[in-house]
Structures are given as C-alpha cells and as structure tokens.
Amino acid sequence: VAKGRQVSDKEWQQHQQQQQEQRQTQEMQLQHQSEQQKHQEVVQSASDPAVNQNAKDLTMEDFVAYIEVIRKLLGSEFVFETEIVRITAEKDIRCINERIRADRPGELAGGLSS
C-alpha cells in the first residue's frame, strides 16, 4: 500500500508540474499577444490620417533640440558627421555649431563645415 501511495504522489507531482508548465506557456502567449496588439495599435495610429494631418515640418530649432537629446543619451563623443547629415544652409550650420561646440571632442571642436 505504501508503494502504491508513493507512485500516486509521484504522479501527482508530475501532474502539478505539467499544469504549472501549461500556465507558464499560457501566460507567455498572453504576453506575446498583448505586445503584438500594442505594436498593431502603434502602426495603426501612425497611418491614421488624423494623426498625419496634425504633423508639421521639423524646424531647425526642433532639429537642434533633437541633436541635443541624442547627444545626452549617447554621450559627448557622439558627433554628426557631414557625410551622415548634410546641412546645406550656412546659417543652419553656424547655428548647430554654436549649440554643440562646447561638447565636441577636441579635434572636432571647429564644428561642421559646409
């Protein structure tokens, strides 16, 4: 009788383990579905005409602010190279150079060139 009880306990443990694994799998599936739904909502909102209707062109002030945020996130060694970002207007180049001059590495302290 004791031997039969041990087998029963072992079967019960296996059953519990299987149920735990099923719960974990279901939780992971729900989490994945939730992430997919969020992604789909972002894609839908980005293509929504009402959202795009209110979009505006990026001003130089916005662009410089964007550069400053990126530089703060990546560190002061981050530099926009003229090959990567081509800025043609001389006044815009001067504006950007003045904003970022203090944080540029030594050999690049002169700033962007046209």
UniProtKB/TrEMBL annotation:
GO MF entries: kinase activity
Bias kind Low complexity: ranges: 14-34
Sequence ranges of Basic and acidic residues compositional bias: 1-13
Highest taxon above the source species: Eukaryota
Organismal lineage: Eukaryota, Metazoa, Ecdysozoa, Arthropoda, Hexapoda
Gene responsible for this protein: Ipk1_5
UniProt-listed InterPro entries: IP5_2-K_N_lobe
Region described as Disordered: spans on this chain: 1-55
Organism: Bactrocera latifrons
Assigned keywords, A-Z: Kinase, Transferase
Biased composition annotated in UniProt, kind: Polar residues: 46-55
Protein known as: Inositol-pentakisphosphate 2-kinase
